[in-house]
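User: I've been going back and forth on whether these two constructs are worth ordering. Before I decide, could you fold them both?

Assistant: Sure. I'll take them in the order you sent them. The first construct and its structure tokens:
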Amino acid sequence: MDLLIYLFFTFLFFHLFKHMFNTIKKNHPPSPFALPIIGHLHLLKPPLHITLTSLSRRHGPVLRLKLGLRNALVLSSPSAIEEFFTTNDIVFANRPAALAGLHLGYNYTSLPWAPYGHHWRALKRVTTTNIFSSHSISLTSRIWNEEIKHLVERLNVGFDHEPLQLKKLNLKSVFLQLMLDIMMRVSTGKRFFEAGMDEDEKKRLVASLKEILVPNMKMGLGDFFPPLTWFKFLKLDKKLIDLHKKRDHFLQSLIEQHQNHEPSISTNHTTLMGTLLSLQKSDPDFYTEELLKGIVSMMFTAGTDTTAITMEWAMSLLLNHPEVMEKAKQEIDSKLKHKNIIAESDLANLPYLTCIVNEALRLYPPGPLLVPHASSAECTVGGYRVPKGTIVMGNAWAIHRDPKLWEDPTKFRPERFEGRVEGYKFVPFGVGRRGCPGAGMAVRVAGLGLGALIQVFEWERVGEELVDMSEGSGTTMPKLRPLEAMYRPRSM
């Protein structure tokens, strides 16, 4: 044991002096003062995107950090985002090695974690063709419409006798249940929340599912000091292993449900799982069960919590700005004269509604720090030396609130999106090869959900005070306090 500890600290000091030598010898981006061994880890206070914004304002839009033994860059300007993620996007098309990718990404084989190369391109083709193509979107939009109507019907229950009585509603729970049902139906053809479930059952199910399905791209001590993972007794990856077991068990149950219990839909091409199982029959070597679980996991983790949070922030902003909600209501009423509940096909004629979603994404992006990239080779970008394996993070929150880029950047003004946004000053879904492939779907689903609630119901804050817009902790930037509001059916 003493020998292992000695070797470990020898390894640390070797890298420390190597880093100091390279810093003197090479041209690096600006950086704060670093402590020995830990580098800048002591500066990373939550909320991380705000801390990094403050550091970037002091040191520049390309900020270099030493995170233990790992090099990192933080990009906080559109020009930096463009140069790193579009002009040089192949060099930065990898993901950093991390314990989350090892465990939750099925040993870096799932699309979010896979290194750039043949396997990643094959996965991208599968998801583009079977999830995000125009044909696939047209099939799944029917599910969106049906689930929105189901939500409206559920919220209308109980108003027959007291149509003018306002009711309190937890919108955080409503939006999360909506997205879970949409993603479950897209994936398997069935809802999570079947008829007959009481509210307590639903709450317990939501809590358990959220624990399993919320994205986890965070890096920890074992990622910043990889040699520590040699010491198994430290159990640095125990939480990730436990989470992987729960998530894998859930995903395996979905596969087995299709394979064994419901053979009639096992090859149903209207569901993602049915499509993937059909592809597996034609090419079992590529379409392994782990690959199938990785694709379905991506759908839930990338599309459920993030879209629900976007709708919650957007509705919070609308409650604090009733004049914006009224303008959206007038647009819906004037364009949808048939009085039917808004459908996906109506969104093209409701540009202001899309502006509201985009403005919510600007102010409260569900990924304030874009999913990290990593350099596959040493390179020079903007005159700066970037070593191989450098972690590169885009600070979308900082760019979206930069007063040099946006007039009154902290104000909620959907009208700013009525024209085209030039450049890379709006990047809620990332850019380049590793940008989110489901960005279009997320904006449309969020717009559809918000549009239906604005169209069918009247909304008020719970009290006279403005809705609290404080941010909570988490990689998807949830609200600190879940949104509650008063509502009742509109008199049409």
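The second construct, handled the same way:
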Amino acid sequence: MGNNNNISRFDWNLAFILFLFFCVSCTAIYSAQHLGQYDENFVVKQIVWYIVGAAIAGGVMLLDSDQLQKLSWYMYGLGLLILTFLIVAPDSIAHEVNGAKSWFQLPGIGSLQPSEFMKVFLIIALSNVIVKHNEKYRIRSFREDILLLFKLGLTLLVPWLLVMQQPDLGTGLVMIAIFTGMVFVSGISWKIIVPIFSSIAALGVGILSLVVYFPSFVKNVLGLKTYQLGRIYSWVDPYNYSGSDGYHLIKSLNAIGSGMVNGRGFTKGMVYLPEGHTDFIFAVIGEEFGFIGGSVVISLFFVLVYYLIKLGLETRNEFNSYLCTGVIALVSFHVFQNIGMTIQVLPITGIPLPFVSYGGSSLMGNMFAMGLIFGVSFHYKRYMFGSE
């Protein structure tokens, strides 16, 4: 009886959505391998990572909200410890790749990016902060809201600084997106949220304007790296930087454009795409399966996010609702940034397409996040109009 009950409590709908992503991922990576730049079989490796990710999700699913809350600061502390060690680790186990020291090189396993797990630890820690604060201050005033915002900001700041030390701008932006999404649902008054985030947005636009029109000031005063500035310039005018920073974007635009409505066909891609199996996997999909194929993939992400929103509203556990919010912010920003950078809507950053791009760390981190969602379904799912 117990086993049957566990089977019925398992979220088969979410499992099916992830299975569809698995099929999309393997198909797209297999296509990318036919571009002639690879001598490895990344599809087999991706299948292995999916199996490992499923095991991680299964283990996390067994933890209920009380256990996660008790473990939240241990997980958060572990993440900070690993990120700190990454900075001081010798080159033999953590050497720079493309100017960033973001990966451990582990024998027999390959590269492992700890910041992918830190993003999920951050979601759990922020959820715990909000719940504890709301339990303590049932009647809220301006002071209590500012105090909560300060707590959340401090929780974000420490791992964010460690990630930016690598430097890894993409992951830093994801962390900010998670923080922003969770602040919006934390109960903090909009009279506080709107002025603060409007000011931050205005500051961002101002810095972007400085990068475009006063690059020397930005490099000398703000300390941005030359390669980071190059990404901005190549985003605004990629054809002027076709031999350097704009190369990837031009290739991506050519690939997606050549796919038109129906695509060239499976494994019939002709545009050489560096990193086609990782960051630019959507360009491969766009070329070979066209507008229709790209729309199907985007629709699948819409289904996933809709399902997460629905689950977050249905659960009657406050902590789990915040977990769902954090995962929604994580997935949504990844999708928006990754697809946006392939079609010149956003600058290029090293952010993969969740569940589709090849990469063990990314996939394990995302499956870790899905483990939290499976746990919500397994332990606490309730229907708004259902009986107790």
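Notes on the second construct follow. The radius of gyration is 21 Å. The beta strands are 104-106, 110-112.
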